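Sample intake sheet
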Amino acid sequence: SSELGRLHSLFPFKAFCQSMGLTSTRAGRPSYFSPEGKVALMLLKAYTGFSDAVLVEHLNGNLHYQFFCGVYIHPSHPLTNYKIVSAIRSELAGLLDVDSVQQVLAGYWKPYLENLHVCMTDATCYESYLRYPTSPKLLWESVAWLQRHLIHSCKKLGQRCPRNKYKDVSKRYLCYSKKRKRKQSQTRAIKRGLLKLLEKLVGQVQELLERGEGKIEPAERFHERFATARKVLEQEKLLFAGQKVSNRIVSVDRPYLRPIVRGKETKKVEFGAKVNNIQVDGISFIEHLSFDAFNEGIRLQQCITLQQRLFKTTLKAVAADAIYATNDNRKYCTGQGIHTSFVRKGRPASDEPQRKILRSELSRERATRLEGSFGTQKQHYSLDKIKARIEKNEILWIFFGIHAANAVKMIEKVEKKKGKNVA
């Protein structure tokens, strides 16, 4: 009867796991959590907003959380390895297919939804947990990482570390970073020094790799990160020379992130995944997710197709922002007999007053329900700043945040439906 219990009853765990191909064993041995328990743990994380360590701590002492995840943890043998949450996240992220799993959820929730003939759509950015990127920060992070690798590799090979200006540049960067106000000439000087040092370090590391081939084995993600450092060097050289750069890297750890220009008053640029969502009767689904900037206005037809595929229902009305009101989208909706919230072009029709009322109602619903759902997801379901450090894990984090919010909203819809049936 608790909200957590009702939330569990409104999520199709078995069908969800089958669609993902999730099994009870991993690496040839039984897993501590069942397939349903792994999905429940990710749902619980989005619902509570806890960090991995705090979630495991609560799981040890809260029987409701244990029932939700289908495990029993003896008080004298609590879970101590909080990295189990991260391991499960990585396992699920490798199996997640957003489209097929959303089909399962839509089929399970469809009996409790009304107004299936109305679709609302809009895009938002789910930001990553990231310091604001500047050229000196990016260059310094690349320099510091390469220097650490250089020292570590030389120790393994038993040879002297090659000389460079790392100590001098590190002192200069420390003085620069402590300043509250920095002149343009100071910024340009520190950039020049970091660029020279980074170029030197890239050459030294490359030479060391060639000489120590077969003697040292780099870490798993070394080559990917080394390629990122070289890309940062190329891009920052162009920027230093006053040239423009496309697909700029903003994080050495997460090279897949790109600047998303949103044009908001408080945040003109955001760094994270841009997601085009559709909403049906208050329940949101992911239509398109990308870490590169894209124009959501050209995706209205895909939104309509997704809604019809998920619910097998003919669409009669669409509510969308003004960016979606292109001529192609208007022609498509007119040809399909779909009413829109777009401001009319040309002469008014004979039934213009009725159409105006419908447009106004659609716009109001979209502005309150759909845009309001973005704020709810970000404030209450761990989507404010996403702390995953791998692209697939970040997608999984966003997926569970959106659908945890949906499942909570479904509780109210199910109770309303049951109340009508009783009456």
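Comment: The chain has a mean pLDDT of 90. The beta strands are 25-26, 29-30, 118-127, 259-261, 269-280, 283-290, 317-320, 339-340.
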